[in-house]
Amino acid sequence: MKILVINAGSSSMKYQLIDMTDESVIAKGNCERIGVDGHFKHKTGDGREYETDVVMNNHTEAFVQIKNALLDENYGVIKNLSEVSAIGHRIVQGGSLFSESTIVTEDVIKGIESLIPLAPLHNAAHVQGIRACLEVFGKDVPEVVVFDTAFHSTMPQKAFMYPVPYEYYEKYAVRRYGFHGTSHRYVSQRCADLMGKDIKDLKIITCHLGNGSSITAIDGGKVVDTSMGLTPLDGIMMGTRTGALDPSVVTFIAEKEHFSPTDMDTVLNKKSGLLGISGVSSDDRDVTAAAESGNERAQLAIDILEYEILKYIGSYTAVLGGVDAIVFTAGIGENQYTHRENVCKKLAFAGVKVDEEVNKKSIRGVEGRISAPDSKVDVFVIPTNEELVIARDTMKLVQGD
Length: 401
Ligand code: ADP
Description:
By secondary structure, the chain is an alpha/beta fold. It has helices at residues 59-71, 106-114, 120-137, 157-160, 166-172, 181-195, 247-257, 261-270, 273-278, 284-292, 296-320, 330-335, 337-346, 356-361, 386-398, and strands at residues 2-8, 13-19, 24-32, 39-44, 49-53, 84-91, 102-103, 143-147, 203-209, 213-219, 222-226, 325-329, 368-369, 378-381. The protein is built from 15 helices and 14 strands. The longest helix has 25 residues, at 296-320. The protein has an 8-stranded mixed β-sheet with strand order 5-4-3-2-1-6-8-7, sandwiched between helices. It has a 6-stranded mixed β-sheet with strand order 11-10-9-12-14-13, sandwiched between helices. Helix 11 (296-320) crosses helix 13 (337-346). It folds into 2 domains: 2-147, ATPase, nucleotide binding domain (Nucleotidyltransferase, domain 5); 198-386, Nucleotidyltransferase, domain 5 (2-Layer Sandwich). 46% of the residues are buried. Helices cover 40% and strands 20% of the residues. Bound molecules: adenosine-5'-diphosphate. Adenosine-5'-diphosphate is lined by residues 210-212, 239, 283-285, 330-332, 335-336, 364.
């Protein structure tokens, strides 16, 4: 069974075609600059690749590019579109409506649409993606939606409520939802597998550290708290996002600078974080390199990031009443080993001990335990694979499992 996984953004659409017999990626690519001018990239599992500038006015035109690439004489991987058994879509916001993956129906599309106010850019783009897919692949190919928020739906109310007047929860569904759920789900289950234990018996803290970052506390396979909130702005400092801060900082700066809510949204989401503090870059590699060559603000940005990761792990250890394993994943978590080392050193009081040599070598897709044999807490680096989770959920649902 071959499953097409789609991650539709407002101006981009990433895809992977996965062969479920061995879970290998047989083709992947990205439609970039949809509605602007258009750039298309395609790569096959056996190393054939091409990229081209091609106008894509909307998501339907982007899907036509994907279809043509998959069937292409030179770069194709299938002979007939009917070889694609099902399509799985990543959806950012499932709100309180969707606590698990589901098969797409008109009602499901309407549900995702109704959540657009909570995730204006993302959910609107996802709906465009689903509809475009229906147009190009036809109604006979089943589609499934997998939500970033779903894994977090087990959080207790005391963890997901914000202490603002209750009426805003009732009127506007203002609460913590959490994101990256598919990634936290994948790495926590993989962690249990690597430990050879049932996830039901484990307390795990998963650190998804990328351009966007979130940390999650998982007790017995169920999320009890997560750092992202109503939107992906909450939690730890990120590439260009602030993470959590005193809300008065927002009103204070807005008043001083005569900024509108939209202006402030740009400051908090696009100009802050590693970029805002360092003034160098939003990319951790650039900031780390600048810090190493003596840039003090870059060093400060790194110090803040490591301090915040440490604070979340500390508080979630208390929330869980102890921790069996800590997992690092995503671009920074999988590669920037100095952050892992610095954070884990500070956790020595909790019995965390990292093997520095193993940690250094655990980069660029390496999966495994980085804690020393005598560490009381297991620490892992686990490359995330959200597309595989989407493909697995899609297969299960279309097989009626
Ligand atoms: P996104 O949240 O956009 O999916 P990623 O998970 O790709 O982001 O993470 C991007 C971050 O990870 C950047 O700050 C970058 O510096 C870091 N990163 C990505 N790849 C590497 C790598 N090979 N080595 C070091 N850092 C990396």
